[in-house]
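User: My advisor asked me to double-check a structure prediction for Purple acid phosphatase before group meeting. I don't want to rely on an old file, so could you generate it fresh from this sequence?
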Amino acid sequence: MRPRLALLVLMTAAFVGACFNHVVARMSPYHRPKSRAAVSVWDSNDESSASPQQVHVSLVGQDKMRISWITQDSAPPTVEYGKSPGVYQNSSTGTTSSYKYTLYTSGKIHEAVIGPLETNTVYYYRCSSDSSREFSLKTPPAQFPIKFAIVGDLGQTEWTKTTLQHIGQSNYDVMLLPGDLSYADFYQPRWDSFGRLVEPLASQRPWMVTQGNHDVEKIPIIHPHSFTSYNARWRMPYEESGSDSNLYYSFDVAGVHIIMLGSYTDFDPSSAQYKWLQADLGKVDRTRSPWVVVLLHAPWYSSNTAHKGEKESVGMKASMEGLLYQARVDMIFTGHVHAYERFTRVYNEKADDCGPVHITIGDGGNREGLAKSYMDPTPQISVFREASFGHGQLEVVNATHALWTWHRNDNDEAVEADSTWLTSLSSNPGCKV
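Assistant: Sure, here is a fresh prediction for Purple acid phosphatase from the sequence you gave:
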């Protein structure tokens, strides 16, 4: 079958399926699952105090990756890597740090940047010269198609484990997480538990994250600094994008420019984040990056009654929505509200063919449960909404078309409940920048 015909068939099938799913969701009763217990992943008795744990990888520039891991005792911050199991032709030595939070002292936090790496290639690696634990990672492709897994508000429950299982089966290239990672909420060992929980996936594919309200962990007088744990454990490539903060940054991968914004740091027009965003959007070359995607935590559009009217949503939208609209951002993914909702292309509260598609994906599986109360009637700009745990997949097929699907965790099966084809704004003659 010819490529154009194949794409047309896929789009038609997806459109019919999306319409069917939308009608079924509106007409059929869906019995939402109950909450599930919190989980904790503790140290293995078989591991030495110098054994690497909580391993995760992230993108650094076009052809490098940062490997991050923790040991309980001192160990060299060295990563050895190669294309065959047990054969490491290359090595990189990085840095070691730690932090204190009230009475808690972290383990030794190591990170090293490896590369240059070939695209779409599997590498095997070990950390701190520990031969007992070998890991593997796959680099993203250099060109379309590319597949993203997207989910927010993960936490650590049995539902989280189900979500992670489904994501692991999706054959994704890059994970995007719009805030609220561990739900440690000041209890620092929960950060360690979260690192162990996600390691099987986060050590194999790049995880790119931004922060949420549960990651702030500021205590007046006792611990007056925000994001101590988040910044120490989940360092993102902010310097490479000209940012002065780990709380907001951007990166490019396979023709997609992705911007991670901070809902819980200054965002008014005089702020460093606003000025950085303005400069970053001005540098985007839509011939090289035809898609622009933004992630932040607190949603600007939501018909759920949870978290309505918060300054992080209302104030940030007032400051930055015009910037993103003028730059023709294609999609904005958020968390915070523990449910799923997809809006049509929208700007200034109204449907707009040149506005971004807003999607709330704060349904990873956190311990606080689902946000089940929605506004009635449904706003016309809200296309699909459902209070269920799940995850999303964004498959960018080429410079003009991408397929978005949302999969609910239905009886531990990843059931596709919502899907739609999207066309890039850069290919729309009426939406030229």
